[in-house]
Amino acid sequence: MDHSCKLGWAVEGIYPPGTDGSHINTVAECKLLDLIATGDDYGLVSIYRDPVRDNYHKARSYRGHSEHVTKVAFAQEGDFMLSVGGMD
Hints:
With 88 residues, the protein is mainly beta. Helix content is 0%, strand content 39%. It has one domain (9-85).
């Protein structure tokens, strides 16, 4: 089963310093490509190398939504990543 929980060892580095973690809405993992994607309250989809360790892996973040991102998911083979925004 792929990791989809925003808490745990594999995703401890998805939270910037000084945040409480409530801005991360969704997490998806692609084991085939060793990637983890997150969606947040600021309309950003961020992609990390798996596992995301504190102060070790930096994200590539993309703005694709006007408001909060409610869901991210990888296609079966990891060829595509899908995201859904709250007011899109």
